[in-house]
Design goal:
This protein has a five-stranded mixed barrel with strand order 1-3-4-6-5. It is mainly β. The chain has one helix and six strands.
Length: 111
């Protein structure tokens, strides 16, 4: 049960091509966002689709796979953990972001 403490699994489509960086150490970092959709009927009986966007980061070999095979619109399954980090912007305001650190990636859909 301890492996379930911080685990995220999402299936969605990329909103843009991934941004892949090669750090000074030679390690790769890939950043991308995926959209997940949930459909339901509102009180009037109309079908409504709710889209949520999730920021994802991948490191090392996973980032290399993202760089080689993942493009805008592709459907992917990601598994990882949820992390939050903070920084000070140029005006000295504290900023926060929450992202999924991907440790496993599955390419879905057709070519």
């Amino acid at each position: 049960m301890s492996t379930l403490r911080n685990k995220v699994q999402l299936i969605g489509n990329l909103g843009n091509d991934p941004e892949v960086l090669t750090l000074e150490s030679g390690k790769k970092l890939a950043k991308f966002s995926i959209a997940t959709n949930e459909s339901y009927k509102n009180q009037k009986g109309e079908r409504v689709t709710d889209t949520q966007w999730h920021n994802v980061v991948a490191w090392g070999k996973t980032a290399e796979i993202v760089e080689s095979y993942v493009t805008k619109g592709k459907e992917v399954a990601v598994e990882g953990k949820l992390t939050t980090r903070s920084w000070d912007d140029k005006d000295g305001n504290k900023r926060y972001t929450t992202e999924v650190v991907c440790n496993e990636l599955l390419l879905l859909g057709g070519k």
